[in-house]
């Protein structure tokens, strides 16, 4: 909400509504067990079916979420006049795409930012795509003298990172064990940090320092 307020000055008198997709946020949240885990696994699917049933799970679909959005807009239009625009980001572009298929004339304008292809987009592939980007970034470092000069000749950037991750998994990373043990650094934390640095243009300087 704070980001939206920065983008749209209050002087414009625009009302901003931020709906939650079914299964997330303030509505009933889909979780994988009684401890609110969200780690998807075969056991999670079994839990879903046992709690909601197949018919119940259908009520969390993108199509139903599109109907929810339409009802919210129609309720607003019943009390207020003026234009209505829908802005979707990332997964929200898929939600917006489905909404426009069902309600093509309900709003006056729609914006899709960071479009996710409904046929090619897949959360399950994020790790694969991120790995490819990371490998390409490390390759660029390897062929640039300014970057590669900080790495051992026999361990170019991709090899050195692989070795560090392997050593962390085996609890044999000497530098971490000797100087940073208090931070409980794991290979997953290093991967997450590296991903955060390469995923956004805002982190350009961070990854340059890296």
Keyword list:
about 210 residues, mainly alpha, two-stranded parallel sheet, 10 helices, about 55% helix
Number of distinct beta strands? 2
Question: Would you tell me the structural class of the helices and strands?
Answer: mainly alpha
How far do the termini sit from each other? 32 Å
User: What order do the SSEs take from the amino end to the carboxyl end, as H and E?
Assistant: HHHEHEHHHHHH
Largest sheet: 2 strands, parallel
Count of runs of 4 or more consecutive helical residues: 10
Radius of gyration: 23 Å
Mean pLDDT, all residues: 85
Task: Report strand order across the widest sheet.
Answer: 1-2
Tell me, what's the shape? extended
The share of residues in extended strands comes to: under 5%
Helical coverage, percent range: 40-55%
Please mark out the parts with pLDDT under 50 across 5 or more consecutive residues, or reply none: none
